[in-house]
Amino acid sequence: MTSTSPEAENSAAVPAPVVGRPRSTAASNAILAAVLDLVAEHGSMRAITVEAVAARAGTSKTTIYRRWATKEELVAAAVESIKAPPAFELPHESVRDDLIRMLKAVRTDVSPRERRILRCIMIDSEDNPELAAQQERLMTERRRAGIELVRYWIERGELRADLDPMLVAAGLVSPLLTIQIYGHYPHLRTPDLAERLVDQILTGIGTR
Amino acid sequence: MTSTSPEAENSAAVPAPVVGRPRSTAASNAILAAVLDLVAEHGSMRAITVEAVAARAGTSKTTIYRRWATKEELVAAAVESIKAPPAFELPHESVRDDLIRMLKAVRTDVSPRERRILRCIMIDSEDNPELAAQQERLMTERRRAGIELVRYWIERGELRADLDPMLVAAGLVSPLLTIQIYGHYPHLRTPDLAERLVDQILTGIGTR
DNA sequence: TCCTTTCGAAACGCTACCGTCGCGTATCGA
DNA sequence: TCGATACGCGACGGTAGCGTTTCGAAAGGA
Fold first, then answer.
1. Does residue A17 lie within 7 Å of nucleic acid chain C, judged by its CB?
2. Which end of chain B is less packed: N or C, by CB atoms within 10 Å?
3. Do B188 and A166 touch (CB under 8 A)?
4. Is B119 helix (H, G, I), strand (E, B) or coil?
5. Where would I find the HTH tetR-type domain in this sequence (chains A, B) (predicted)?
């Protein structure tokens, strides 16, 4: 820790010179936050303009373009600045409660703002490999907790030993996400969706 | 059937006069097909241009704007022209086979072209209520078969009677779609995904 | 203090695309 | 044949947004 800068450098940014007036980190943060705000408000990354970002951040376009060469780099940097939510604590009292809590965490820990941001990343990552990589990073982080949870209860014999933890997690989280975030199956958007999903997969749907 | 036109009128189109040279239905069809082609090739509706549609359809921009007032109307009409796939026949030999067949039909009956179109509709329906309505129409049609199937096997006592058929369908189709179409959980993209999903939900994951 | 760089503001060039118009030609019904 | 409309073509005006430039002022480091 000899002379570390207080803020981590933005990866894809144009490097700042060492002499002269230093760049305002407050401005950098405000710009990245403004990008995420606007992405959350409007539908996608196509829908936001650099001028709007500057206005929201209280800076000028010049200040933005001094840091990032293109709009794509700017958005990528903003997405990169998103941190994964802190790992939530589970009481480990019962499989059912844990799974339900995990699913509800997907719904509550993720704010509506962040939810819309994730949705936009999903959309735009189609034709933006940089964004696609970022998406993978965010998704993998968020998926890990669920997979670990399944593993935990398999070890304790509460879940079948021959399960693929990832498939179980997918079977629970995917329906929840498509219903909650994408708005599919509107009839299923009830407050007890998490409970119903867990019960369904826990006991199975067959009669034998 | 006195003087019915051979083709159904396009709903939101500017009505064609009764005197003078009639509009070419071939051109109309070529235009709508071109829209869907281009939507499938490029990412979204924003990415396609009216000039490109005209070029692909072998017409001129004038011909397009004589039928639809704006690009939005054009896209909406093209989406409206999509027909639901024919209902597939199931052998009804066993629940397991039927469910697996149903899931595999999701993967095979929907061509890659149509898949991309559906994806784009999903994306653009965010800020286009007209498209959102069309999306609901297409999704509901496609979901019905799965829900009916669950109901069929409930009546025959092979599935639990207290199930919500829609929740079961969602629990099966959603993971498949997110994995197959959206590319999530890349480790799960195996040829036997349908079988594994069905087995997991059929027998349940719990040990008691 | 001086030198270097940043900042905000405003204007600019550029490109892409929408939607319109005019024109000569083609095609239908009466 | 005549009248009315559709057709393709090309050009146009208008708008939006990206990225650049200029300029005076401010703010740090040596």
1. yes
2. N
3. yes
4. helix
5. 25-86
A84 C-beta neighbours (distance < 10 Å), count: 12
Domains of chain A: 24-80 (1.10.10.60), 95-203 (1.10.357.10)
Question: What's A165-200 look like in SS3?
Answer: HHHHHHHHHHHHHHHHCCCCCHHHCCCCHHHHHHHH
Whether the Cβ atoms of residue B98 and residue B92 lie closer than 8 Å to each other: yes
Q: How many C-beta atoms surround the C-beta of residue A208 within 10 A?
A: 8
Q: Are A16 and A23 in contact (CB under 8 A)?
A: yes
State how far the Cα of A171 lies from the Cα of A202, in Å rounded to an integer: 11
Find the closest chain A residue to B187 by CA distance. Answer: A166
Mean pLDDT for back-to-back runs of 10 residues, chain B (208 residues): 37 74 96 96 87 97 97 94 84 95 85 85 79 87 92 96 97 93 88 97 90
Query: How many Å apart are A133 CA and C11 C1'?
Result: 38
B-chain residue closest to A190, CA distance? B167
- Asked if A206 lies within 8 A of B168 by C-beta distance, the reply is no
